[in-house]
Design brief:
heterodimer; A: 673 residues; alpha+beta; Alpha-Beta Plaits; four-stranded antiparallel sheet; 14 strands; B: 161 residues; mainly alpha; Four Helix Bundle (Hemerythrin (Met), subunit A); ATPase_proteolipid_c-like_dom (chain B); V-type ATP synthase subunit K (chain B); membrane (chain B)
């Protein structure tokens, strides 16, 4: 339960060791670079944007080549690929790839070129296919599709609007170009909107004939060919076949690069890491011979790094506490169980300076409430087994994923326990199956009680757990006040509230309302009743008097105090909010029973059993999924709104160290032991 | 059995119908509203499918709560499992009244939660790393459906048939 203590480390070393030191720091990945000194006449920053952009470009072109490879030869991935995490490689492989990096860049470029060629071939196929389509209406013409002439005659092809016939053309020519006798018109083909025709006439009449035809919508074809359309078509088809063959060859060539995939990935990561290094290099203040690097480092690593560096290089290493006005980044450090809930805290906000890490305390409530909301032994077992197997099977999955799965593993165990306490195994599957198939109803007894039979009892317990949760939250607030030495705040904001709330609860317990809810009357001795009244009154008066203590005006102070007392309604709604523990638990159980009931309505024969199994599997899978989601969301809500609302704000900055930020493969990080 | 006695079971069944009908309709509308936003995000970035699907599902619980109350009511009046109970008119009306909270709150909160979920899907579209927070806003709306469920459930459970 802690936030790792951060220190500022500043290293001043000789420029000749710059590369070695930077690379060492990067592979250690424990330093977040953060410079406090600016440029002056001695120290200047180096402009590395050019190199950095170069490395980034190289990484991008390798990434692009990998994407292209993925398109042609998809990498076979299992269903659980996202769980496998980055591939682990040893430094030896890394070094080998580094040596070949120029070649690999060339390979990447040629992959990109080949991809472009491939696209060109496909474009050509498209173009040729369009040409064939344009040629289709002319296929029955057995002369080349262009204007041709003999010694005395001329032939030209063209199109006219739909509905044109040879007769209508002759009539038209008779009207518009009466001198052009001996003109021949051949209709090549007819489509609803276009008629394709060839016209033969004497050379001297050609202009008049064409003008006459144009007036009725004649147009020359947009493309001309030197061969007869049928031959032209087979030529084009041949070209298409050639293009396709070329495309296949290119695809084959690209596919042959697939063996290089791993090396390309490592090289891409290599360039990415170098780009990061140069971006850090650009931030370093450097004098003629020396450079300075400064940043935050966890305290546990600081001395190791300092010893290692000052032992190996000529350098000055200075480790100091962060100053008051600095906001150092945050790393959470918890026991192996609670560490799995760090993701939950992170998604709300990391602790700022002065706040404590709430993870450890929250983790127990988290698992407790989660199990209570899902509360079915079989569901819990399924969740725990699935998560446990996945974690065991994929050791290299990303740390965040691993934490989430382990979180659900523990929540599954808790669900199992609550399920046994409440007697829920796939709802009431044991009853249904024994009654339907074996004739006698067997009920697995609940270890505690069955919520459906006694919901009020569970409601009271839910609210009780809620009160405990909230009181722990208020207690942490008190602890924080004491830690900071704010005794007055501790007394006014925490102790007085505890007095008021405990007093009110003690007054409520013997009342009739509570008796009707809990179905048992509680009798306190008179002394306790008096104590309750005194506590509540003292608390309330104290709050009215003290809440507005920051204000000098007495009237305003009392008004603010009274307003703060109004927060009692907030406490009421916070406590009632825990009734969801009951409601969600009931929802899981009852809907599971509905599914079982549906299955049991089928006849008791082979088909009935098959359908029963199908309904069972699908129904319970659906119910598990939706209630798992519900339990997760509402457990988070209870922590974030009700619990954190009492003492925690968050807003810290996560630690983002200078490290080997790779995308595909992970090189075993070095550690200083 | 006179006509008035027969009406009792009708009111009780009407109660079950109200719970399932309105809560289910609320969820259908809510999931639909959220689904439109989810589909929009997936057209831009299919890799967010799982995340937006989870948020789309959040307004779906009201329908389940309605089903729960409906189921409890049906088994209470003996329509499930044979042997219809002899329900008096007043008991029937009591059951109908008990079913109203989850029906009406389910309808309204389903729609409201659907709208919130649609906006939460907008968060995931722009800042996928804020998924945890995005999921919480629709859950706030759901609280009131849970409260209505509790009252409906406790009321139906408490009515003696």
């Amino acid at each position: 339960m802690a936030v790792l203590k951060m220190q500022r480390i500043s290293i001043c070393a000789l420029k000749k060791d710059r590369k070695a030191i930077l690379e060492k720091l990067q592979s250690l990945g424990v330093l977040e670079v953060d410079h406090v000194i600016g440029e002056d006449e001695d120290f200047h920053r180096m402009d590395t944007t050019g190199q950095r952009a170069g490395f980034e470009r190289a990484a991008a072109s390798l990434d692009q080549a990998l994407e292209i490879l993925e398109k042609y030869v998809p990498e076979s991935k299992s269903m659980f690929a996202s769980l496998e995490g980055k591939k682990q490689i040893d430094p030896e492989t890394e070094r080998k790839v580094q040596e070949q990096r120029q070649e690999l860049l060339k390979t990447a470029r040629s992959i990109a070129d080949l991809d472009r060629d491939y696209a060109e071939q496909l474009a050509a196929v498209n173009r040729l296919t369009n040409s064939i389509a344009a040629l289709a209406p002319w296929l029955s013409l057995d002369v080349p599709l262009k204007s041709m002439r003999t010694k005395r005659t001329v032939m030209f092809p063209g199109t006219m609007p739909g509905g044109t016939t040879a007769e209508s053309v002759y009539t038209l020519l008779g009207e518009k170009a009466p001198e052009a006798e001996g003109t021949e018109v051949y209709i090549v083909s007819t489509e609803p909107s276009t008629v394709y025709l060839a016209v033969i006439c004497f050379q001297e009449d050609a202009a008049a004939v064409e003008d006459a035809l144009r007036s009725a919508g004649f147009a020359r074809p947009s493309q001309t060919w030197d061969e007869a359309p049928a031959e032209e078509k087979s030529r084009l088809e041949q070209q298409i076949a050639d293009c396709r063959e070329n495309a296949d060859k290119i695809a084959g060539k690209i596919a042959s690069f697939a063996v290089k995939r791993d090396e390309l990935k490592i090289a891409a990561d290599y360039y990415r890491v170098r780009a990061d290094k140069y971006s850090v290099l650009g931030q370093l203040p450097q004098s003629a011979r020396t450079f300075v690097i400064s940043g935050y480092i966890p305290q546990c690593e600081a001395s190791k790094v300092a010893d290692y560096l000052s032992g190996k290089y000529d350098c000055m290493v200075d480790v100091e506490e962060p100053k008051e006005d600095e906001e150092p980044p945050v790393i959470l450090k918890n026991n192996p169980f609670s560490a799995n809930m760090e993701g939950v805290v992170e998604s709300y906000g990391l602790p700022t300076r002065g706040e404590i890490d709430p993870t450890t305390i929250m983790s127990f409530f988290y698992v407790f409430f989660f199990g209570m909301m899902l509360s079915d032994a079989a569901y819990g077992a399924i969740v725990a087994i699935v998560c446990g197997v996945l974690v065991a099977k994929f050791p290299h999955m990303s740390p965040g994923m691993k934490k989430s799965l382990k979180l659900f593993f523990y929540c599954g165990l808790s669900t199992l326990v609550w399920g046994v306490l409440f007697g829920g195994y796939f709802g009431n599957i044991v009853d249904i199956v024994s009654q339907k198939f074996f004739g006698t109803t067997v009920t697995v007894p609940a270890l505690w009680f069955i919520p459906l039979n006694d919901p009020m009892k569970l409601l009271v317990y839910s609210l009780l757990f809620g009160v405990i949760h909230l009181f722990v939250g208020l207690g942490i607030k008190g602890y924080l006040c004491l830690k900071d030495g704010k005794i007055m705040d501790f007394f006014c904001d925490v102790v007085l509230w505890f007095m008021l709330l405990i007093g009110l609860i003690l007054m409520l317990l013997p009342s009739e309302i509570f008796a009707s809810i809990a179905q048992t009357a509680i009798e306190f001795p008179a002394a306790v009743n008096t104590l309750a009244a005194v506590l509540a009154a003292a608390g309330a008066i104290g709050i009215v008097l003290m809440s507005g203590r920051g204000n000098k005006n007495p009237a305003l102070r009392l008004a603010l105090g009274a307003y703060d007392l109004y927060n009692i309604t907030g406490w009421l709604s916070d406590v009632l909010s825990y009734s969801r523990l009951l409601a969600l638990g009931l929802a899981t159980g009852v809907i599971a029973s509905v599914i079982n009931q549906m299955g049991s309505m089928l006849p008791n024969n082979v088909i009935g059993v098959i359908f029963f199994i199908v309904i069972f599997i699908f129904g319970h899978a659906l119910n598990l999924a939706i209630n798992l989601l519900g339990a997760y969301v509402h457990t988070n809500r209870l922590q974030f709104v009700e619990f954190f609302g009492k003492f925690y704000e968050g807003g810290g900055r996560p630690f983002s160290p200078f490290k080997q930020n790779t995308k595909y493969a992970e090189i075993k990080e070095e550690t200083l032991s | 059995m006179n006509i008035a006695g027969e009406l009792g079971i009708v009111y009780a069944l009407l109660g079950a119908a109200v719970a399932v009908l309105f809560a289910g309709a609320g969820s259908a509308l809510g999931v639909g509203i959220a689904g439109q936003a989810a589909a929009g995000v997936v057209t831009e970035d299919p890799s967010k499918f799982a995340k937006v699907l989870i948020i789309q599902l959040l307004p779906g619980t009201q329908g389940l709560y309605g089903l729960l109350v409906g189921f409890i009511t049906l088994s209470k009046i003996g329509i499930l499992g044979g042997g219809i109970a002899d329900v008096s008119v007043s008991t029937g009306l009591l059951i109908l009244a008990a079913c109203l909270p989850i029906g009406i709150v389910g309808l309204i909160s389903g729609i409201a939660q659907g709208k919130t979920a649609a906006s939460a899907i907008g968060i995931v579209a722009k800042k996928p790393e804020q998924f945890g927070k995005a999921m919480l806003f629709p859950a706030m709306v759901e609280t009131y459906a849970i409260l209505a469920l509790l009252i409906s459930f406790l009321a139906v459970n408490g009515i003696q048939v």
